[in-house]
Design a protein that fits this description.
Layout lengths: L10 E3 L10 E6 L2 E6 L6 E6 L10 H12 L4 E2 L8 H10 L7 E8 L2 E7 L18
Parallel strand pairs: 5-6
Antiparallel strand pairs: 1-7, 2-3, 3-4, 6-7
């Protein structure tokens, strides 16, 4: 995922071979934030309900829930085909000043290969970032 406004190098954790993935915010289903522990498929999942009305990027209940999960240290999975996936929402809330802290992004690099990347707050001018844009741009 591109992270305009964030200065490389990023703080990246690469696991030792065979290390299982951590519990993470995997994706957002209708009315549920899905947490997964372990590898997919076959990982253990759990869901936390939220009021899923209106656009997710403008949902204060979802934002509060994801901020709480961030405080608990859970990483947010990058979903390349979900424009309103967990990591994308966290990045946009950072960019618009609605999230005032860093978060960890979980991503798959290949079968059984994953990494965690700490995403810090953006700064104007870094990597050409000019400031907040409407969601999805």
């Amino acid at each position: 995922m591109d992270h305009p406004g964030r200065r490389p190098p990023f703080d990246v954790y690469l696991p030792v071979p065979g290390e299982p993935p951590p519990q993470r915010v995997s994706h957002i289903a209708p009315g549920e934030v899905v947490l997964v522990t372990g590898a997919s498929p076959g990982g253990v999942s759990d869901a936390i309900a939220f009021d899923d009305h209106g656009p997710r990027w403008a949902n204060p209940g979802l934002q509060e829930l994801l901020a709480e999960l961030n405080t608990r240290g859970l990483p947010f999975q990058y979903q390349p085909h979900a424009p309103d996936g967990p990591a994308a929402l966290m990045a946009w809330w950072q960019e618009t000043g609605q999230l005032g802290s860093s978060y960890r992004e979980f991503s798959w690099q290949g079968p059984g290969q994953w990494r965690l990347t700490r995403i810090e707050l953006p700064q104007r001018g870094v990597l050409g970032w000019r400031g907040p844009q409407p969601f999805g741009y």
